[in-house]
Amino acid sequence: MKKILVLILLSMLSAGLAACASNGSQASALERAQYAYSAAIRWGDLDGAWAQLAPELRAKGEMNEIERNRWKQIQITSYRVLSSEAAPGGGAVRMIEIGVANRHTMTERQLRYQEIWRWDAASKSWFLTSGLPDLWAGQ
What we know:
Distance between the termini: 72 Å
Number of strands: 4
CATH architecture: Roll
Strand order of the largest sheet: 1-2-3-4
Mean pLDDT: 86
Low-confidence stretches: 9-21
Radius of gyration: 20 Å
Strand content: 25-35%
Number of helices: 4
CATH class: Alpha Beta
Number of domains: 1
């Protein structure tokens, strides 16, 4: 009887450790994806930021030349994470404050942007589902 109890406890312990390891690797993958995305935004790497978008957003088509040229007119001066939390359904949400300077007028402004991240179990990757930040407030 003791052997059966020990085997049951060991199997429960190993299952619990496996679950922790998968959650840990998922959290680590989220950190890597968010770091890569924030670095791409900070350095003006539009293609790098685009690669972090969810496949369904990328499938809608590449940015046109006018949109790309608008991004070339600005410089990201700051990128601060204001809050970060788990979202219902296993996703993640971050509130970001971005500093944006117009290269031509040298004016700077701050804006807030919400990032929504989704885990894709098939590719074992995190994707940004909220799209790129609207640095022009809909203009």
